[in-house]
Design brief:
alpha+beta, 1 helix, 4 strands, about 25% helix
Length: about 70
Amino acid sequence: MYLGWYDDNPKHTPADKIAGAIAAYILRYGVPPTVVLVNEAELTQVAGVEVRSDPYTRRNNVLVGMTP
């Protein structure tokens, strides 16, 4: 199951957007996610989570979840 997060603030870096999505996931589910899906243009490294590019994920959208 993935949690969708949308952040179109131009002042936020992709890492900031991912951090916000991770915080929302932890708040909702009580555990940290293991995988993050982002648009290819927003691919970046974040400690403690695997960040993957996905051609179907639109810009400014972050999907966070658990790998099976």
